[in-house]
């Protein structure tokens, strides 16, 4: 930011800048990396010029498998690239490829959606739609998993590198009053520009989608949105949401990064994850970590034949089953028989027709010695955890999530 930027007048959205494509890759100095298409769409929409409408204008370095868009934002020529998937490994591959093709990149920005704590250290409120600018990164899932808890490594040799002195100085400048005022104004200007493009469908979803419950409050129903099952008297009051049209605010602070996903009870209403499609990916990531085969357990169940009409009814009418099904106490019903006597057929019938129609949480797993994914105790445990968290996502508390993250796909049953 130069003195020319510190003008009290808003610049028009179509900014002055380069009017032709740089002749070589060496002339691009700014890179933007996005993980999701909707994030890249927002960046793309702010390009003042597109230099690749007729195809990528350069030759990529050998081994670079990235996909790029090249254009100009203001005075800067910018290269935009997409991650092929989530995770730090993908980020490292993309960064290395970008550096090899564009060797003079001086500033690389990762732009996207993030979760956030509900308040700043000085008590300021953070609400849906605010802008977070990182002045440092914390690698939160690098450490040691002890039997009782996870210990993050935070010594200097194990930490991510600090931003360069130039970046730290720019961050300090943007935090001062006048530059921050102009930055806020420019954020509002560019947001207006994005919202003026109907194909983006960029709009504020409304205060009803930004509910913050008390830290001790637990979501109470199976996968239902909070407006159907949670009581508003447990909401935390927030002053900014009392405004008729809350405006986004720019915040500065540390950003946590890593390969695992955390759900913190006190950050936000879990119903937000259910209602906003952009954020459902994070919930799916945890479930995929637990049981990467997804709904394969349903297929495993359905490999068993259907019962013949009239069979299995003796079992559900037996007094022991009736007592087990009706008791409110925790109890175990053990069914045993020789191989080939129909235990799997009975279990499939119970899951499909009897137990699943009750108010209980129903989980199941079918062992098969000869089939991969059905022969190990860890397979069963992962599958059962998957079903529990899928049906009751609010059980993914911070403590549970940290336990899952610390295990890191261990194949040891005792660790699990």
UniProtKB/TrEMBL annotation:
<protein>
    <recommendedName>
        <fullName>Nucleoside phosphorylase domain-containing protein</fullName>
    </recommendedName>
</protein>
<dbReference type="GO" id="GO:0003824">
    <property type="term" value="F:catalytic activity"/>
</dbReference>
<dbReference type="Pfam" id="PF01048">
    <property type="entry name" value="PNP_UDP_1"/>
</dbReference>
<dbReference type="GO" id="GO:0009116">
    <property type="term" value="P:nucleoside metabolic process"/>
</dbReference>
<feature type="domain" description="Nucleoside phosphorylase">
    <location>
        <begin position="30"/>
        <end position="148"/>
    </location>
</feature>
<feature type="domain" description="Nephrocystin 3-like N-terminal">
    <location>
        <begin position="310"/>
        <end position="400"/>
    </location>
</feature>
<keyword id="KW-0677">Repeat</keyword>
<dbReference type="InterPro" id="IPR053137">
    <property type="entry name" value="NLR-like"/>
</dbReference>
<dbReference type="InterPro" id="IPR000845">
    <property type="entry name" value="Nucleoside_phosphorylase_d"/>
</dbReference>
<dbReference type="InterPro" id="IPR035994">
    <property type="entry name" value="Nucleoside_phosphorylase_sf"/>
</dbReference>
<dbReference type="Pfam" id="PF24883">
    <property type="entry name" value="NPHP3_N"/>
</dbReference>
<dbReference type="InterPro" id="IPR056884">
    <property type="entry name" value="NPHP3-like_N"/>
</dbReference>
């Amino acid at each position: 930011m130069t003195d020319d930027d510190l003008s009290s007048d808003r610049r028009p959205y179509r900014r002055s800048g380069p009017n032709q494509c740089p002749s070589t890759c060496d002339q691009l100095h700014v890179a933007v990396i996005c993980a999701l298409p909707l994030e890249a769409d927002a960046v793309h929409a702010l390009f003042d010029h597109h230099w690749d409408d007729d195809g990528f204008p350069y030759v990529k370095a050998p081994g670079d498998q990235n996909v790029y868009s090249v254009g100009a934002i203001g005075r800067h020529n910018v290269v935009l690239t997409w991650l092929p998937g989530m995770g730090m490994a993908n980020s490292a591959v993309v960064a290395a490829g970008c550096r090899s093709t564009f060797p003079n990149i001086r500033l690389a920005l990762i732009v996207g959606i993030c979760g956030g704590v509900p308040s700043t250290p000085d008590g300021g409120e953070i609400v849906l739609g605010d802008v977070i600018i990182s002045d440092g990164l914390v690698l939160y899932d690098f450490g040691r998993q002890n039997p009782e808890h996870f210990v993050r490594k935070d010594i200097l040799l194990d930490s991510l590198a600090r931003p360069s002195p130039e970046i730290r100085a720019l961050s300090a400048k943007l935090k001062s009053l006048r530059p921050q005022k102009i930055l806020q104004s420019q954020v509002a200007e560019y947001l207006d520009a994005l919202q003026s493009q109907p194909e983006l469908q960029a709009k504020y979803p409304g205060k009803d989608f930004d509910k913050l419950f008390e830290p001790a409050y637990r979501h109470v129903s199976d996968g239902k949105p909070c407006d159907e099952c949670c009581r508003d008297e447990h909401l935390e009051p927030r002053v900014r949401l009392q405004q008729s049209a809350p405006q986004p605010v720019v915040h500065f602070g540390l950003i946590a990064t890593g390969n695992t996903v955390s759900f913190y009870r006190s950050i936000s209403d879990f119903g937000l994850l259910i209602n906003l499609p952009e954020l459902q990916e994070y919930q799916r990531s945890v479930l995929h970590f637990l049981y990467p085969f997804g709904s394969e357990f349903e297929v495993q169940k359905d490999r068993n034949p259907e019962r013949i009409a009239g069979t299995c009814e003796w079992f559900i009418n037996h007094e022991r089953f009736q007592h087990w099904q009706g008791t409110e106490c925790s109890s175990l019903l053990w069914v045993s028989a020789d191989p080939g006597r129909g235990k799997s057929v009975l279990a499939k019938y119970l899951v499909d027709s009897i137990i699943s129609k009750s108010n209980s949480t129903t989980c199941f797993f079918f062992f098969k010695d000869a089939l991969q994914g059905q022969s190990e105790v860890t397979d069963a445990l992962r599958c059962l955890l998957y079903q529990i968290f899928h049906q009751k996502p609010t059980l993914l508390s911070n403590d549970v999530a940290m336990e899952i993250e610390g295990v890191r796909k261990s194949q040891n049953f005792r660790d699990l």
